[in-house]
Fold this sequence. Notes:
By secondary structure, the chain is mostly helical. It is 70% helix and 0% strand. The mean pLDDT is 80.
Amino acid sequence: xxxxxxxxPKPELPPRVGTAxxxxxxxxxxxxxxxxxxxxxxxxxxxxxxxxxxxxHAVDGLVLMATEEGITIWLRGWGPNSGRAxxxxxxxxxxxxxxxxxxxxxxxMEDAVxxxxxxxxxxxxxxxxxxxxxxxxxxxxxxSSERQAVVNRIQQNALERRWKADAQGVSS
Length: 172
């Protein structure tokens, strides 16, 4: 039995966003350990030579992390990483049709290659803008040598920024 596109309706946006976000969350969880190694390998460049980890490659980094800090270190930052993946996918899917519709309705453009290109550019900017704060949180959680909950890290960062602003005479 052959199915045609006419025999089943196109899924609505909320179920598509939900399933895509769930799969992205799982993918973020699966790739979290690799992100930790990448961040640590990149961070060596800004550390003093005496503090370098000197990982030969990613697998070497994973093995050293597991032997020196325990296998649970691979899960550090999994929350922000998975959350970022889900938010990125959801905002990208939600902005795709909206950007195209706005360009056609308000800019008077017709559904052609130029609309697709402009909508794609807008669609790329949306998740990048939405996920930037999550990237900062994830980077701090993963690169830290301390074991600290992400929520505590956010609170500590906010307090530090507030103290700096007060010291400089800046009011918020």
